[in-house]
Specification:
single chain, about 500 residues, alpha+beta, Chloramphenicol Acetyltransferase, six-stranded mixed sheet, five-stranded mixed sheet, 16 strands, about 35% helix, disordered N terminus, Alcohol acetyltransferase
Length: about 500
């Protein structure tokens, strides 16, 4: 359908006489799609945080999240790889109700989830055979195109791309791409953990047993964050007044704060991948523990330290946005293996003077650790996510009204920790290796997105994305080169 719309638009540009016909055809297509979706089972309203993603998706402000993971299957798996993948996805669809749900009326202020009657895996799972494995530069280019491509109803709001190679037929790379309203970052991690477990359960699969068309389960969709939270994301009056003061009274632009270019369209994602080997990763974890801080806080500090040398001297401050999972204080039916959106954010400030010392500023990393601990103690109280319930019009107030205005946060760091698996040393079962977490650049988000995860192979990977024209590509390359040196020096301490 998307291809047809593009063709119609081109035809309209060439021949104005076709305009009325094109509009009629498009109207009919939309009408048929709406009628089809009206017959789908209605699940529940889209939650406040989920609505932020459903509002920005059709506007082209942010499209998706992706997890790229390397797998190895044993010689005992003699059937075609497609059979094992289809069977494993069948298991996951029964386990994760969000995989068979899509948001309806995304462009409205009252979207809700509906359940697809079935999922045709031939349309959602694609296999691409290569002569050799995909390199990081090729993967960067491929993920950039994926991160600039959204989803269209009534198809599922996720896709799985499998890369195989002729040099190692037992090895494949699986890229899971999904709409942010279906899951947060931890959800992508959960997908691959449960996908690995499902693959291991297919060891006795028989020829013809795997299904291509999967009927959707009747499982209840897990609750949104404000419903799942024991206190409904409480916001105190002093906190609300404080945030209103910052937004409407004291909101003038800070000339000494760097946050990239103003909010702007169109969205075109740039992506670079940085991977640290297991030895270097272990060394960084160790040195962070010795200095009583965490890898997340060291990364936040190192990024600020890597940015300032390449910024004009007039900029002396940057703000980092961080993500925290809300799952620890939610009901027991929401775990790290669940798929849904249960996350909140916090903010940290860094100054040029504090981070550009001769040696690494561990005091700053420890200070950042205290910020996170303070946020964790609140358990969802007085957070920016809790303020979403006061927004009247997401599209107008949170998105379109920001275009042309300066942004405040320079970068976001989302660290999902380690993707752990059971019996990872057993060669007779499928194994999982390196994992890369990446996401679209955000039109109304931070100038730079840094998505972090450590795979089962012990390698820490950073997916660094930014929007074309918001941050200069040469500046980004210089910052990334400096960051690599910083991380290398940390591992040598």
């Amino acid at each position: 359908m998307a291809l047809s719309i593009v063709l119609f638009r081109r035809q309209t540009e060439r021949d104005g006489k076709q305009q009325d016909v094109c509009l009629i055809i498009l109207h009919e297509l939309r009408g048929r799609m709406t009628l089809a979706m009206d017959k789908f089972e209605k699940l529940r309203p889209v939650g406040h945080l989920e609505k932020y993603s459903t509002a920005r998706h059709p506007l082209g402000y942010y499209y998706n999240v992706a997890f790229t993971t390397n797998y190895t299957i044993p010689e005992a798996f003699t059937l075609p790889l497609k059979d094992y993948v289809y069977k494993a996805i069948d298991i996951l669809i029964q386990q994760h109700p969000s995989l068979s749900a899509i948001p309806q009326d995304e462009e409205s202020e009252a979207p809700y989830f509906v359940r697809l009657p079935e999922i045709d895996l031939a349309e959602q799972v694609s296999f691409q055979r290569r002569a050799t494995g995909i390199s990081d530069s090729e993967l960067e280019a491929f993920l950039q195109t994926q991160h600039d491509a959204g989803f269209s109803p009534p198809s599922p709001y996720w896709r799985l791309i499998i890369f195989t190679n002729n040099t190692n037929v037992r090895h494949f790379t699986a890229i899971f791409v999904y709409h942010h309203a279906l899951g947060d970052g931890t959800s992508g991690k959960a997908f691959h953990q449960t996908f690995l477990h499902a693959l291991r359960c297919t060891a006795s699969l028989q020829p013809g047993e795997a299904r291509q068309v999967i009927p959707s389960p009747k499982t209840t969709l897990l609750p949104n964050l404000e419903i799942a939270h024991p206190l409904g994301l409480p916001v105190s009056v002093p906190y609300l007044l404080k945030m209103l003061f910052k937004e409407f009274v004291f909101s003038k632009e800070d000339p000494k704060l760097w946050a990239g270019g103003a909010f702007q369209l169109p969205l075109k994602t740039q992506l670079r991948i940085v991977v640290l080997g297991p030895t270097q990763t272990s060394a960084i974890v160790k040195v962070c523990r010795e200095h009583k801080t965490t890898v997340t806080c060291a990364l936040q500090t190192a990024i600020a330290r890597s940015l300032f040398p390449h910024l004009p001297e007039r900029y002396v401050r940057v703000i980092c946005s961080g993500a925290i999972s809300s799952r620890p204080w939610l009901p027991e039916n929401i775990t790290d293996l669940s798929m849904g959106v249960w996350v909140q954010e916090f903010f940290e400030h860094y100054t040029r003077k504090a981070v550009t010392q001769e040696s690494f500023p561990w005091d700053e990393a420890k200070r950042s650790r205290q910020t996170i601990l303070k946020e964790l103690k609140l358990k969802g109280k007085n957070t920016s996510v809790g303020l979403l319930k006061f927004v009247k019009n997401y599209r107008r107030d949170l998105l379109e009204s920001k275009i042309g205005k300066p942004r405040k946060t320079a970068y976001e760091v989302s660290n999902l920790g380690v993707l752990k698996t059971e019996k990872s040393e057993d060669p007779s079962i499928p194994q999982i290796g390196r994992v890369i977490f990446s996401q679209s650049a955000g039109v109304t988000g931070s100038a730079i997105e840094v998505s972090v995860i450590t795979g089962a192979d012990g390698s820490l990977a950073l997916g660094i994305s930014w929007q074309t024209n918001v941050v200069d590509d040469q500046l980004m390359q210089a910052m990334i080169d400096t960051l690599k040196k910083e991380l290398h020096q940390l591992s040598d301490q």
